[in-house]
Design a protein that fits this description.
2 copies of one chain form a homodimer. With about 190 residues, the first copy, chain A, is mostly helical. The first copy, chain A, is built from 10 helices and no strands. Chain A has 2 domains: about 45 residues, Orthogonal Bundle (Arc Repressor Mutant, subunit A), CATH 1.10.10.60; about 140 residues, Tetracycline Repressor, domain 2 (Orthogonal Bundle), CATH 1.10.357. In chain A, helix 1 crosses helix 2 and helix 4 packs parallel to helix 7. At the A-B interface, helix 8, helix 9 and helix 10 of A face helix 8, helix 9 and helix 10 of B. The first copy, chain A, binds a DNA duplex (18 and 18 nucleotides) through helix 3.
DNA sequence: GTCTATAATTCGATAGAC
DNA sequence: GTCTATCGAATTATAGAC
């Protein structure tokens, strides 16, 4: 059995609350109530509500970017690389759905320069994936298509997976979820 | 040139503001400032902030449900029906991206019973589409697959389109957007 | 329809004692 | 680390005059 510190519990419960209600709709009083202590105690763990969101989002963005760069600079083929990226997203979603929920829904609540920085990093991430798709088309692994649109569609397909993970009563099998998603993206739904 | 009343302008600008910043993050002061009048004037057009959101979301949900029911009870084949549903979503998104943005991102801000009602209607909508996919598999138009997952994926693919419409500088061609989406969903990205 | 003024509440955050 | 107490700002909404 895993020992969990009060600090870990704080971040876990806060993440769930924000994921369920939204960042703006989650008040410090909500968090304190969930933790069974007073509002002032929250500031033992974080410096501000905004800083909490920033830390979550940029930690994830940096982690994902780092992982993608390792894939890109490897010697796999373009489509193999693309599948590794998708696999990473699915497996991460299966393990940390609330983090993904935050990432998908709450980045808009970043302030000024941080918002801009976030959007630029995310854009850069997507462009790297689009490049993989372009290369896949060039070497004949993928069919001809609008790469910007397709990149957009692949991210759209992955983006909402966290909802399924959070909502499904019976535990989802991440391996099967990945297989279904790969088939959907690469083969489509039409019968050959 | 279209004549636009102040009331129409109010709903248009308010929709854009909420879409950009989020429902909770958009204050009555923001709206009044955009409209170049005082906060009190807002209540000439709506009875409350919550009612504004409710009206938008349920109007759309009812409209979509009604349209889907007409498709379902028609004599088209399951896959033809499915394509009509997808087409409807794409074309609606092309014309009213801010409405879709609201629909996708802000339903969580509904209160108590309204939230439950919304979720049930949306669930019912998705189940009707899943039934089309099941029938498509049965009659051999679609390959065998997990229908719940696939339904989820199709909606995920469509859900984020509004972002492309809003962000793209050069006007998007809705017909081409629909073609790319249909190819993505039905054929996948792999080269045959 | 538009304004001024303000009510009533809720918000994030801090001071300071224990 | 936890509490009480509270601040100052922001929020939705209303009253009532013009």
């Amino acid at each position: 059995m895993k020992i969990i510190t009060k600090k870990e519990k704080f971040f876990e419960e806060t993440l769930k609350l924000i994921s369920e209600r939204g960042f703006k709709a989650t008040t410090m009083r909500d968090i304190a109530e969930r933790m069974n202590f007073e509002v002032a105690n929250i500031y033992n763990y974080i410096e501000s509500k905004d800083a909490l969101l920033e830390n979550y989002l940029f930690d994830m963005l940096i982690e994902f970017t780092s992982y993608l760069d390792n894939i890109v600079t490897s010697s796999y083929s373009p489509v193999e690389k693309l599948k590794l990226v998708i696999s990473r997203h699915v497996q991460y979603t299966a393990i940390k759905p609330y983090e993904i929920s935050l990432f998908v829904n709450e980045w808009r609540n970043l302030n000024g320069p941080k918002l801009k920085e976030f959007e630029e990093m995310r854009m850069s991430y997507m462009q790297k994936v689009e490049k993989l798709i372009m290369e896949g088309i060039e070497n004949g692994e993928l069919r001809h298509m609008n790469t910007e649109f397709t990149t957009f569609m692949i991210f759209s397909s992955m983006r909402w997976l966290f909802n399924m993970v959070i909502n499904e009563k019976e535990k989802i099998n991440p391996i099967e979820m990945e297989k279904q998603l790969m088939d959907f993206i690469f083969k489509g739904i039409e019968r050959k």
